[in-house]
Structures are given as structure tokens and as C-alpha cells.
Amino acid sequence: MAKLATGDRAPSLDLTAVSGEPVRSPDPDRLVHLQFRRFAGCPICHLHLRSFVRAADRLTDAGVREIVFFHSGVDELREHVRDLPFAVIADGDKRWYRAFGVEAGARALLDPRAWPGIVRAVTAALWLLPRRKAHLPSANPSGGRLGLPADLLIGPDGTVLAAKYGTHADDQWSVEEVLTLARTAGRAVTAA
């Protein structure tokens, strides 16, 4: 499927998270931030999601529900995400990646703009691994290593309020960008 743009209708979701909780989108009471990350144990993804863990209360207060997809199977993913305070979806066959137009390609790692993020993420992982606060990725992760990230903000009616399709592995919304988009979207939803 093609990439979704602002104003498009997002596919409805009725899924089960790795934790076993039911996950639905759209959410009639909140905005939904869909994060399409790479593979289980991806150092860049791990570092990125830690920033969202630290901001979990702020995101909840802003009316945002986080739903994070990985193109890994449940068993491969479980140990990497068990302490995340939001819904994580295992999508090893990339069904939802295709449905939302999320791509993969060598540019995920070959784009020089990804390299500083790779260095930061690997450095953080080297610090966390001996402390058992991170796990090594599989040598051959399901879904491969060349996935590109994507972020979509979905309104309560299922409309895409904003979308970002990454051009390299470290090209994704920050917490502050999500909070700014949520404030803007909240004003637009209230005015409608």
C-alpha cells in the first residue's frame, strides 16, 4: 500500500500486544501515535523508545496513546520490550508495515545521516548490556535489519493527523515533536 498522508483514513486495528492486552486504533478518547520501529533489539530503536518511556506521563497527559510495531515475531520481541509502558505489536510478517506503507532498504543504514544515531545507540547499548538493561539482537533478526521507521498520529475518528516516513534508521519523531503535534491536533479536534 502507498504511504498515508495527512487527511487519509488509517486502517483500523484490532490486535493483541506482546503483553496480551487488546489494542485498538483509532481510540475514541485519545490520539494514537503509531510507531513503526525496526527489529527486536535494534539499538537505535531501543535508545529512541527509552526517551518515550521517560516521557510516558507527559504523553498520557497530552492525550496520546503509544502503539509500537516491530517487524519481529513475538518470541524474539518479548525479552526486548517487557518493561515498556505502552502497547507493543509483533508484526513478523510485516502485514501492518505494508498496510501503512512502511518501507525497508539499504539506505536505512547507508545514509550518512543515520551514522551519528548508530554510534549513540551502540555506545548506549555497550553501557547497558553488562548491566542487563538491554539484550543483544538476534544475529539474523526476522524481518531483516534494513527496515525504515515511520510515525503516524491518528485522530479519534481514524484520520491521519500527521505522518513521517523515515529516510534512514534514525529518522523519526522525537517526544517533543509528538507533544507539539498532539497540542496542534487537540486544538483542531476541539475546533471541529
- Into which percent range does the helicity of residues fall? 25-40%
Distance between the termini: 29 Å
Percent of sequence in beta strands: 15-25%
Strand order of the largest sheet: 5-4-3-6-7
CATH T-level fold name = Glutaredoxin
Main beta-sheet annotation: 5 strands, mixed
Please give the radius of gyration in angstroms.
Answer: 16 Å
What is the succession of H and E elements? EEEHHEHEHHHEEH
User: What is the architecture at the second tier of CATH?
Assistant: 3-Layer(aba) Sandwich
**Quaternary arrangement of the chains shown?**
single chain
Unreliable sequence segments: none
Overall geometry comes to globular
Number of domains: 1
CATH superfamily: Glutaredoxin
Report the average pLDDT across residues: 82
InterPro entries: PXL2A/B/C, Thioredoxin-like_sf, Thioredoxin_domain
Domain Thioredoxin: 4-187
Organism: Catellatospora citrea
Protein name: Alkyl hydroperoxide reductase
Keywords:
Glutaredoxin; single chain; Alkyl hydroperoxide reductase; 7 helices; Thioredoxin-like_sf; alpha/beta; 34% helix
Describe this structure in words.
It comes from Catellatospora citrea. InterPro entries: PXL2A/B/C, Thioredoxin-like_sf, Thioredoxin_domain. This is Alkyl hydroperoxide reductase. The protein has a single domain, classed as Glutaredoxin (3-Layer(aba) Sandwich). The protein is 34% helix and 19% strand. The chain has 7 helices and 7 strands; from the N terminus they run βββααβαβαααββα. Strand 1 and strand 2 form a beta hairpin. The relative contact order is 0.24.
